[in-house]
Amino acid sequence: MNMAPYRPERIVVQTDSWQDASTQEILDRLRGIPVETIADIDALLPELNRCSDPRASGKRILVLARQRGHFVTPCPGAGAEVCCNYFIVNYASNCHLECTYCILQSYLNHPALIIFTNLDQLTSEIASVLERNPERMLRIGSGELSDSLALDDITHYSRRLVPLFASCSNAILELKTKSTQIANLEGLDHRGRTIVSWSLNSRPICRSEELKAAAFEDRLAAARRCQEWGYRIGFHFDPLIHYEGWEEDYEAAVKEAFQAVDPARVVWVSLGALRFTPQLREVVRRRFSESRIPYGEFVPGHHGKIRYFRPIRQEMYSKMRTWLREAAPEVFVYLCMESRATWEESLGEAPRDTAHLSAQMDRLVAKG
Amino acid sequence: MNIYRVPLQEIDFGDERFRISEELNLPSMEDSLRAIGQLNPVLLLGREEPGWVIVCGFRRLHALRRIGASHALACTRTAGDLSPLEAFRSALWDNIAHRQLEALEKARCLWTLKDAYGVPQDILVQEYLPPLGLASHQNVLRSYLSLHRLNPRLRALFKNGRLTLSSAERLAGMKPESQERIARVLAKLHLSASLQREVLELAEELAAISGTDPGAVLDGEGTRAVVDDPSLSPPQKGERVREILLRRRNPRLSRARELFLAERKNLGLPDGVHITPDPFFETARLRVEFEVTSAGGFRQLAAALQQASQSPVLDGLFRMQ
User: Fold this and answer.
1) Are residue B232 and residue B290 in the same domain, yes or no?
2) Residue B212, in any domain of the structure
3) Mind listing the pLDDT tens digit for each residue in A319-363?
4) Does the pLDDT value for residue B315 go beyond 90?
5) Beta pairing, strands A266-273 & A333-335
6) Which CATH number fits the domain that encloses residue A149?
7) Structural domain includes residue B125
8) CB atoms within 10 A of CB A187
9) What span, in angstroms and rounded, lies between the C-alpha atoms of B132 and B100?
10) Looking at residue B135, what is its pLDDT?
11) Which of A175, A341, B17, B21 would suit a FRET pair with B312, their CA atoms being 20 to 30 Å apart?
12) H or E segment at A207?
């Protein structure tokens, strides 16, 4: 159940991060790696941009910096016709897992792997968001700009966040990961307020496109362990990738996933077909020439992204739904960034709107 | 600086290490030399063995030879007082001083500086791109260096304005056999800049999908018939080739479009009515446009639309979304 832990070649501390306790804590866990201090992390950009692959080189530099913007923001999916109305919390930016399709490759302005150190601001911001929304059950997840747990052996942030949410009556934390870095979750008094979710894919895709992520079976083993520790878990089959033989592989993945865990303690499963920007497609071709991902039948879609032609997506969702029904009849399945029409055609039903889906999911998490 | 009359037979025309010019055969140069003779001396570098290497003045010397001259006015240098790099720089600056270099000439200069004289890429970017009229950026350098790997037939197409710089760059990255096959096809098509980009991208993608190379895709069975069809004009051929590749690249979307067109035809609407679907069938939205020039025409159209609204074909159009 081991995946290679992240170890940078060098660490760069932004000057004002030295005031944060987490900076020294992180450095203590990475002894022996050269550390330097700079005033502005953008000063790294010329050096990185000269590299043949700035994205790969950037990940070898760990930057400890203060988050200057907001830690908590609405999920970018919020513009879709039906959206789960999620909040995201970003305590890191970038990820070392090297998934070929990763949107961060074309999204982030800075190629280094950045961990934000001003955790006090993070916790006060979360508290403030909860205070402003007392009537809602907020679902807040941290897997948007980085994997939620892949760096947890370095940050131990889960040990701050899980207890924080345990004390909240109107919010849950979702930690989304492709890793097996769950050691810090053991023994925490989470009170059912943290859901640990795994991003899953078919075995061949895990092997060929999620290059440094944990193996499929290792993710499931980690999920099972978290269930044993009392956590509810989620699965995200996102991105679903269309290739010859996908049906057999994904059906097997669904079966294995629900054989590995207790289906009754799986709070939700999301489905999302591959989508990416045209720029990302070029990046994937350049960085991962072996990847077949850029060669699907794509059309322009939401937010300037391209995605599979609708009948392909519908077929994938529909078949996944069937396999999920067979493996876990009660599990809640939802689609990410899809229209009502696609929901109806694929799943046979659709939430009326974002508020409806949001309410359904709020009820699920409130059940505890 | 002394000027000498050097016999042409002492000049090694085959040694082109300092050549900048892409085109050496200039009829206007011959006319000028015939009319008023050689006004400006060329620059020659002495070899170890007897004879001379051309540094500046390739086009003048070739023209002199073609018009049957026996001698050329020349300034001369020896290897001792002009290193090969200095000689090349002399040729480059001499050319830049009196004319705008073509893209292929710029490519040749940059390639030679890098390959023959070992000038580092960052020096090329900083010191050589600006005087060549190019932006001082690594990507620009990469583009121009790639041109030098272009197949001669593709170079000719580029030189004639039939290929854009980005297309040429894309093609230069392909294998020589692939370039040769594509050159054969492109010589018979007319593709706008955007169509070039689209066709080459489609060819590359289809090659990646099928595990072949873009040359085999573009010069394959389906497209060859179009390319060799004498009844089609070059722009028509270009459009047809694009359609063939597009259909292969997006089989489901293409089939949906064809089905839609067939069903729309079955609806039997008058010519003035246009029904278009969402371009990618993402939504059920249909756009209906019509134009009339009289009240009578309007009534006729309304009746035709009323009749179409009763047709089961109409439901089919929406089911396809």
Assistant:
1) no
2) yes
3) 999 999 999 999 999 998 898 889 999 999 999 888 888 888 888
4) no
5) parallel
6) 3.80.30.30
7) no
8) 9
9) 8
10) 93
11) A341
12) helix A203-209
Report yes or no on A258 lying in a domain. yes
pLDDT at A99 over 70: yes
Q: What is the largest CA-CA distance in chain B?
A: 95
* CB-CB under 8 Å, B249 with A294: no
Q: What is the ipTM of this complex?
A: 0.84
Question: How far off is chain A from B280, nearest CA to CA, in Å?
Answer: 6
Q: Which residue of A has its CA nearest to B206?
A: A295
Task: Note whether residue B109 is domain-resident.
Answer: no
CB pairs under 8 A between A and B: 37
- Residue A239, chain B, CB below 8 Å: the answer is no
Peptide bond into A239 cis (omega under 30): yes
**DSSP letters of B257-270?**
HHHHHHHHHHTT--
Rg (CA), chain A: 20
Q: Which of A286, A288, A306, A309 to mutate to test the interface with B (most CBs of B within 10 A)?
A: A309
Number of domains forming the structure of chain A: 1
**Start-end of H helices in chain B:** 27-36, 58-66, 84-98, 103-115, 121-123, 138-147, 152-159, 165-172, 176-186, 193-210, 214-218, 221-227, 234-249, 251-266, 295-309, 312-319
- Chain A interface disruption, residue of B197, B201, B280, most A CBs within 10 A: B280
Q: Does A310 touch chain B (CB under 8 A)?
A: yes
Compute, in degrees rounded to 10, the torsion defined by CA atoms B265, B267, B271, B273: -120
Q: How many domains does chain B have?
A: 3
For residue B256, which residues of chain A lie inside 8 Å, CB to CB?
A: 309, 311
